[in-house]
Amino acid sequence: MGSLIIGGNSRPVFGFPGGVHPPEHKTDSSEAPIRVAPLPPRLVLPLSQHAGAPAEPVVAVGERVLKGQLVAKAKGVVSANVHAPSSGTVTAIELRPVQHPSGLEQPCIVIDTDGRDEWIAHAGISDWQSRDPAELVALFREAGIAGMGGAGFPTAVKVAPRKPIDQLILNAVECEPYITADDRLMRERARDVVEGLKILRHILKPREVLVGIEDNKPQAIAAMRQAMDGTGMEVVVVPTKYPSGGEKQLIENLTGKEVPSGGLPADVGVVCCNTGTAHAVFRAIEHGEPVISRITTLTGDALARRGNVEALIGTPVIDLLRDAGIDERKLHRLVMGGPMMGFTLQSPAVPVVKTTNCLIAASAAELPDPAPEQPCIRCGACAEACPASLLPQQLYWFSKAGEFDKAQDQHLMDCIECGACAYVCPSSIPLVQYYRYAKGEIRKKQAEERKAERAKQRFEARKARLEAEHAEREAKRKARAEAAKKRAEAPAATAVSAPAVDEAVLARLKSASLSASSEYKAAVKALKDAEANGGADIDALTRHVEELKARADAAKAAVRAAQQGEAPAAAPAAPAIDLEKLKHEVGEASSAYKAAVRAAKEAEDAGAANAGELRAHAEQMKQRADELKAKLRDAKAEAPAAAAVAPAVADTAATAPAAAEVSAPPAAPAIGPEQMKQLKAAVATSTRQYKEAVAALETAERAGADNLDALQARVDGLKQKADDAKAALEAVVAQMKAAAGNKES
Amino acid sequence: MSLITVTSPHAHGPASTQRVMRDVVLGTLPGVAALTWFFGWGTLVNLAIAIAVALACEALVLKARGKPLAFYLGDLSALVTAVLLACALPPAAPWWLVVVATSFAIVFGKQLYGGLGMNPFNPAMLGYALALVSFPVEMTTWNLPRDVAGNVLPLAETLAHKFGSGAVLDGYTGATPLDAFRQFHDQPERLAALPFMHGAFAGAGWEWVNIAFLAGGLFLLARRVITWHIPVAFLSALALVSGMAWVVDDARFASPLFHLLSGGTMLGAFFIATDPVSAATSRTGRLVFAAGIGVLVWVIRSFGGYPDAIAFSVLLMNLAAPTIDYYTQPRTYGHARRGGGIGGQKK
Amino acid sequence: MVLIAILALVALALVFGAVLGFASVKFHVEGDPIVERIDALLPQTQCGQCGYPGCRPYAEAVANGDVHNKCVPGGAETVVKLSELLGREVLALDADEADQVPVKKVAYIREAECIGCTKCIQACPVDAILGAAQKMHTVLVDECTGCDLCVEPCPVDCIEMRPVAVTVQTWTWQKPDGIGNAPARRIPVTNEAA
Fold first, then answer.
1. Is the Cβ of A417 closer than 8 Å to some Cβ of chain C?
2. What is the pLDDT of residues A691-729, one digit of tens each?
3. ipTM, 2 dp
4. Of the N and C termini of chain B, which has fewer Cβ atoms inside 10 Å?
């Protein structure tokens, strides 16, 4: 690549391959000074105006916001804040058509302006030279600065590269036809742009700062050279050729370096930044203003007043076009961006966003409808024009034939979609559309492959999990089967020991019952004494008496049950001991049975005469052991339930004397269906009473009765009772469930 | 109001297939004029027959393939094929030879491959080669140039000859300088006695025809219809190879100037080899492709059995074009240069 | 003479045989087992529409000789790829007309109607449904493969398959209509005003 020194440069430019020279149309809009666009009645702020994740709204519908107030916060690292460009009221957060060729709608914050344009408190930093770069970068993020040239990459991310930077390049090339926003900005506010560039230099500390400008903007070049005099920064004039403003092309042109495929400029020690972005940096640091406006070129044959305007972000395009005197009959194609890389809008209601550098309201004569696609004649003009040295023709054949792998081998993904190939194509082939289609399909396929891979992993993980669960269940089942078999083989203990133990239990139960009864009687006596003496602790005593009575009754019931031989050891007084005993007995019975079986077997083997007797004995023992086991099971199931329910019922009785008529009998050897029924009835009654009381209270309120307070107190009391009763019932149910669970296991 | 939705770019350059084809036809006009001046009306008659046959064949095949006629005929590619073929055929060729060559070029050389853009071979040269192989006598019978014959055959007699017997017209036809040199290069005296071998720079008449095609080619270059790569590589290679041989043995081999200004050299360099469809596409590829044609032309002219070599050389290099393209892919921005030489393809 | 010819041929045969044998050892390609390669071509929806409980089991079945046109979500494209891989005939997709062009769908639970029975959770082959007994269930859209196995078990029919909506992120330009067609499309503007 040859290099040459042009346009007052002190250094050579390196050039880049390909490129085209479309008619410039720059003077259509470049000669009028920047106007301030009128304040629109309504601003539409897309949450996604930048590359990366959409911002998250931090205001609510109906909220009044001030100019410069944060309305949506960046979400994640690669994202950008959105601020209210003027004061007004948030009237909606809804889907609206946005800056996208698909015409799809995206979430937007809609602000109805109030015309007062009232600023939120804000202040700039004058001593940024002495500030820490990280602090300034945080301010960029705060101000929502995103690249204003086209892609809208958040600047805070861009100026925090991981490598040292050799060159900071200001992309002031503005190579696309029609667009003059940067040109005008540099002509009128060169100092501001240079200040912004200085701030960026302070942050990045590059070896050199270069400003690339095309040689078709002599006034901007002069203005920038003047503003940069003595700063050590340098304007480099580049020959006019589209797409010299492409980031990669500009880097190649100014430094001779190439950004590796798939890499970033920072990988070769370069950071590029757009003129508008530098200006936004200046506003954010020196004035503390977030990005709420930008310079946008309004041009095209359908406009009477072509030129550049400073438009608020969120201004609907139609408002700007009307202000510029649009002839709607002439408007044929509405392009946001330039004629080479811009996209058509499907609705003029789309708002201006941070990346909107140009709006072309073109007539049909100016940008005629594309001609029908003709066969490719392999003329190679596209390859001559391609700035990335691709073979556009090959990419076209492969894209068209759906051979995306081959297209990728031909570096389709390195295509910057500049449109130079389609511009020169004599056969009017929409080459860029083919590439975009192919790229889309490739991305879709990649996403599908990733998803399929994930699905496969999830499927396999699930399969493994199910298999593990199955294996576990199988193991448990086997263990249970084993245990059952063992149990079946267990011999009964000596026939006489069981009834003896039974009797011992009964004796214990009886004595427990007696002592409980005597305790109860003593307590009753104490209570009576206290009542007689007017003691203060009557309530406590009453409760104590009730508890003791319940326990005594339970003990009695247990004795009764034990005597009947149905449900021994259900007494809450000593359920744990009885269970232990039973278990022990079962164990003994089992070993006795086994011993008997062994003895019988030995006798049989020895041919003893009493083998038959021994066998019968073993059978008896087995029976006994089984009975004991059954008892143990029953006892296990009922013991905890009984233990729990007794105090619960007692509590109900104690705290709900109003529901005394239904209070459950405190004795609860086992929670039978009857007790449950009673508890339920108690709950129902107290609930009913509560509801009646509430109704009465309401009636009284309506009637204006004067005993409202008393009624309210009664209602509260009843509610308390009803709740207590319910709680008691629930406790019982829970206990029963737990018992059932224990039984199963 | 309604808006158009279309992918970028929104601007389109002035180039169009029609414009390219029209410029090619315009570029041949000086050559056609020179041919007519020096060799008589035959070329114009050939042109008329070829155009009519080409358009008719193209229309027929398009109709058979169920394609819209106006859209495809409108690209003027059939016209170009017809014009180039007519320029290459001998002015004295009988009418049926023109018909056979043209219809073969259009039907077999182009449409059967899928139409414009799909043909691997240059259709005009395919038609020419078929005619040359099948009817060598008719294809090598050229009119004598005006300077030699004293005059050209009048229009009426040309027509009578073309549509009549096709008998050799004594005094008006004969061998071409290339043919003569091929036959008599070992008999310098006999060669020197042939009047048509003595033009200002090369063969009489032929030199001017070639200069006229060169002028038309420069017009194409100026109009950016073609790039310099193919003509320059073709002519340089031809000049270089023939020059070297000439330096070594100027009795056995013709001079570079003779090669450059004889036969179809300039027509081939600017109008035939530059056919984009069948040529290599990358810049380097085109240089290799055209240099290959140049060398082949000299080889066939010097050692082959046919008087001229443009058609065979072009067709042979057409065969090689895909391979050339494969090995001359440019290095894409941001990618390391491929590991050089053959097999440098990534992976 | 004949002897020389025979000897020469035998010598040639030996040399080439040796070369071939050497090459087959030296350049032996350790390919993926065929099941892996079939599995890689399947869409991994794990839908079971092929009659096997997941993509891998079907891959195994195909490797063992089952027909390769049963994968409905993969569509005709997958059949063609499998045919290429296996060197078998390209068969028509074994599916109803309506299923011929697969549209990407995901399951959607109408949460108000969900009773929390967990039946769909058990049916999901990729664990893409979240929820617990008596609690409302919901679909992890990113993980759902659109296999629709959860639709049938739902006792209250609150699951439906919804086509995946196009977003700005997933939208792409259409393939141009090809030779003879202009790529433009006209959009009548209705909502002119902001």
1. no
2. 666 666 666 566 555 666 666 676 677 667 667 766 766
3. 0.86
4. C
